[in-house]
TrEMBL record:
Catalytic activity: tRNA(Phe) + L-phenylalanine + ATP = L-phenylalanyl-tRNA(Phe) + AMP + diphosphate + H(+)
Biological role: Is responsible for the charging of tRNA(Phe) with phenylalanine in mitochondrial translation.
Organism this protein belongs to: Neolecta irregularis (strain DAH-3)
Name the UniProt record assigns to this protein: Phenylalanine--tRNA ligase, mitochondrial
Top EC group: ligase
Segments forming domain Aminoacyl-transfer RNA synthetases class-II family profile: 87-329
Residue ranges occupied by any FDX-ACB domain in the UniProt entry: 347-439
GO cellular component, one term: mitochondrial matrix
Length: 439
């Protein structure tokens, strides 16, 4: 990454007066929401800056790449609110596993070891990149998945559910947000336990009920017998089919539901699948799961992970992922605990788009860095960012990009002056932080 996220704005030469004029406008537009749990302790040199997250203090280094909008999301805990769509889905899933240990208030700051190393992520896995992950420093990150807590949870219980906010650098559009919520479940048995007698039969229509898992791409682990794996897989699939059937029945009571299982790959399960549901005349992926990789010991079992926002957007009819973070009563008061109701839009404020074109000066430009720069300036005031043109100069071979930034607030109209102020900050930071040449 080509800049340090020390939360201090860097401007190009000659822009100081302009920035002072814009400061009042930007402060009113982008003020943090929620209770701040993080503080920056500045010292005389950048490398000695400290970050405190949930009472743990870290030193920044060249890996640090977390912006203030991301920090301000920590501690919102919308998955713990019983009348919030995310909290409603969590409660429904948890009700299907009454004997499981529940972990839903774990801090997001974890070690690289817990988040990647212990889960078998290769050192060159793209998920480890600074363009994909928020690093507190080289040894610590904001968790990218709930599996970061899996090892610790297994030390306390052989069956558990973990629900948490997770953090990934990503595109800006209506279905992607840098903070979202995952739920992970896992269950273990001794290798010679009679698993078959614990399986409950369900009346769910399943297409491709037993996809192959003996291939090289999705193999049975060598320490497991075929009979053992088949029993674990049946328990896993019937458990998850029951959860999904219950969730979807709350909005389509009495209607026939179809699901199917599709082979896939995950580094921490084998064999592995994704569960899809037939919804609005198309197959929708809902979750991933599989037989846990057994590296030692005499236990075997299954694990699954699902994205709560994806399910909530489908069932509640929520068109923009930013709405989950809204504090507007017109959004929050539409929902009740343990009930799924379709979202009623209360207003659609006008959008205002601005284009920005630039020459890339180095081959290190990454689109996620650009998206993060925009989020750091405009926060949730940007609805989406799209690449609308790309050009390679025939002589110099330099690459040029043109992006369209669509500004639209969810709770108020933005004036052209406000949008122009934000756009100017974006242009300034593109030069100062990403080293591009504006066109």
């Amino acid at each position: 990454m080509s800049h340090q996220s020390d939360n201090r704005r860097v401007v190009v030469s000659g822009a100081k007066t302009l920035m002072q004029k814009l400061s009042t406008t930007i402060k009113s537009l982008c003020s943090p929401r929620g209770r701040p749990l993080i503080r920056f302790n500045s010292s005389s040199s950048t490398e000695n800056n400290l970050i405190t997250i949930n009472k743990t203090t870290y030193s920044q280094d060249e890996w640090t790449n977390i912006s203030k909008p991301i920090f301000n999301s920590i501690g919102r805990n919308i998955h713990l609110q019983p009348c919030h769509p995310i909290g409603i889905i969590r409660d429904i899933v948890e009700s299907h596993f009454p004997a499981f240990s529940k972990y839903s208030n774990l801090p997001p700051n974890v070690s690289v070891k817990d988040n990647f190393d212990d889960l078998g992520f290769a050192m060159d896995h793209p998920g480890r990149s600074k363009t994909d992950t928020y690093y507190i420093n080289k040894d610590n990150v904001l968790r990218t998945h709930t599996s970061a807590h899996q090892t610790a949870a297994f030390r306390e219980s052989d069956q558990f559910l973990i629900t948490a906010d997770v953090y990934r650098r990503d595109a800006i559009d209506r279905s992607h947000y840098p903070v979202f919520h995952q739920m992970e479940g896992a269950k273990l048995w001794p290798k010679h336990h009679d698993i078959e007698n614990t399986i409950q039969c369900l009346q769910v229509s399943v297409e491709q009920p037993a996809p192959p898992f003996h291939s090289l791409s999705n193999p049975v682990q060598p320490q497991h017998s075929l009979k053992q794996v088949e029993a674990v897989v049946r328990h896993l699939k019937t458990s998850l089919e029951g959860v999904i059937a219950d969730i979807f029945s709350k909005i389509n009571a009495g209607e026939h539901m179809k699901v199917r299982w599709v082979e896939t790959f995950f580094p921490f399960t084998s064999p592995s699948w994704e569960l899809e549901v037939w919804w609005n005349d198309q197959w929708l992926e809902l979750l991933g799961c599989g037989v846990i990789q057994q590296r030692k010991g005499e236990m075997l079992g299954w694990a699954f992970g699902l994205g709560l926002e994806r399910i909530a957007m489908i069932l509640f009819g929520i068109p923009d992922i930013r709405l989950f973070w809204s504090l507007d009563p017109r959004f929050l008061e539409q929902f009740q605990a343990n009930s799924i109701s379709v979202f009623k839009p209360y207003s659609m404020y006008p959008s205002c788009y601005k284009d920005v074109s630039f020459w890339e000066n180095t081959s290190s430009f990454h689109e996620n860095d650009f998206m993060e720069l925009i989020r750091g300036i405009a926060g949730d005031l940007v609805e989406d960012v799209k690449l609308i043109d790309k050009f390679i100069h025939p002589k110099t071979h330099r690459r040029s990009f043109c992006y369209r930034i669509n500004y639209r607030s969810m709770d108020r109209s933005l004036t052209h002056n406000q949008v122009n102020s934000l756009q100017q900050l974006v242009r300034n930071d593109l030069v100062a932080k990403l080293g591009v040449e504006l066109r």
